[in-house]
């Protein structure tokens, strides 16, 4: 079956992203909330820089990942044809793979080195959604099962774009908890604020993209109870996009230099807080680390 020409949903959504960020920024001026972090000049500029940079890098990494995924698709004799009426089913399947990809990027240090970029801001607003990795070359591994059962990689990519656009609006403090049935099924700003928080009880929770039911099913859900403190358990004190993009890779390299060869593999593949003496700790570097405050302008 010939596939339709899927629209580039992320590219088409950029004007909407800009409009919503402007409206959110204006809302803080007319309806300030002392408890909400809001926008910081340098922090926002860093997030926007990371987003722009990720566009170019995604094209580069996409060539290799598309080739690998297409190879699996071409090798399998299975085929699941795409029909517009079945789009919700493809979205659910892609979202399930996204859940495990997202969870894996918190639990495996080598993957966390890429994903930590998205958690490095101590603010939480719509610009935070654009703070994306420049090294997203491993996420495709979690979508290979879809290609193996015959889902065309172009369909998975289209659903991934919809997933990414959906997640933009949940990066805000301006929306409180929503209608209870919606909160039970779908990812919302309240659920995602928990995901970006650095408190111990909130660490490594709420990995869902569009749906939050995966977290409820697989034991990683946490409701928003106390106000989140955003960022990492040990925050980086820089707005330099290069350092934001690669600081965890540098930390991995430093650890490998000081550890024995037999400890290299667990250093890369265990949790981000793992050490030969301390074992595994939660993903944001170390649960007992003291966060260093970085002022917001």
TrEMBL record:
GO biological process: lipid biosynthetic process; membrane lipid metabolic process
InterPro entries in UniProt: Fatty_acid_hydroxylase, Sterol_desaturase/TMEM195
Protein name: C-5 sterol desaturase
Domain Fatty acid hydroxylase: 89-220
GO CC annotations, alphabetized: endomembrane system; membrane
Gene Ontology molecular function: glyceryl-ether monooxygenase activity; iron ion binding
Residue stretches in coiled coil: none
Top-level taxon in the UniProt lineage: Bacteria
Keyword field: Lipid metabolism, Membrane, Oxidoreductase, Transmembrane, Transmembrane helix
UniProt xrefs under Pfam families: FA_hydroxylase (PF04116)
Bilayer topology term: Multi-pass membrane protein
Location, primary (coarse class): membrane
Compartment(s) of residence: Endomembrane system
Residues that span the membrane, as ranges: 6-23, 55-76
Family annotation (PANTHER family): ALKYLGLYCEROL MONOOXYGENASE, STEROL DESATURASE-RELATED PROTEIN
């Amino acid at each position: 079956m010939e596939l339709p020409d899927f629209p580039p949903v992320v590219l088409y959504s950029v004007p909407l992203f800009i409009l919503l960020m402007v409206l959110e920024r204006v809302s803080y001026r007319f309806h300030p909330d002392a408890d909400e972090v809001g926008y910081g000049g340098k922090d926002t500029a860093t997030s926007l820089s990371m987003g722009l940079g990720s566009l170019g890098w995604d094209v580069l990494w996409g060539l290799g990942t598309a080739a690998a995924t297409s190879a699996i698709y071409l090798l399998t004799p299975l085929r699941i044809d795409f029909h517009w009426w079945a789009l919700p089913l493809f979205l659910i399947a892609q979202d399930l793979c996204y859940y495990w990809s997202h969870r894996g990027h918190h639990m495996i240090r080598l993957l966390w080195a890429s994903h930590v970029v998205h958690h490095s801001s101590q603010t939480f607003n719509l610009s935070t959604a654009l703070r994306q990795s420049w090294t997203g070359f491993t996420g495709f591994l979690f979508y290979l099962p879809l290609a193996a059962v015959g889902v065309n990689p172009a369909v998975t990519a289209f659903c991934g774009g919809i997933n990414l656009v959906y997640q933009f609006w949940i990066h805000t403090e301006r929306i409180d908890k929503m209608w209870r049935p919606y909160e039970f099924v779908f990812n919302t700003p309240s659920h995602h604020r928990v995901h970006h928080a650095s408190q111990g009880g909130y660490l490594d929770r709420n990995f869902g993209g569009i749906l939050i039911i995966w977290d409820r099913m697989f034991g990683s859900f946490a409701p928003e109870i106390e106000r989140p403190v955003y960022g990492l358990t040990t925050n980086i004190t820089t707005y330099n996009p290069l350092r934001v993009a690669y600081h965890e890779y540098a930390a991995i390299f430093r650890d490998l230099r000081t550890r024995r060869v037999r400890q290299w593999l667990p250093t890369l593949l265990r949790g981000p807080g793992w050490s030969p003496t301390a074992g595994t700790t939660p993903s944001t570097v170390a649960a007992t680390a003291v966060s260093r405050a970085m002022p917001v302008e």
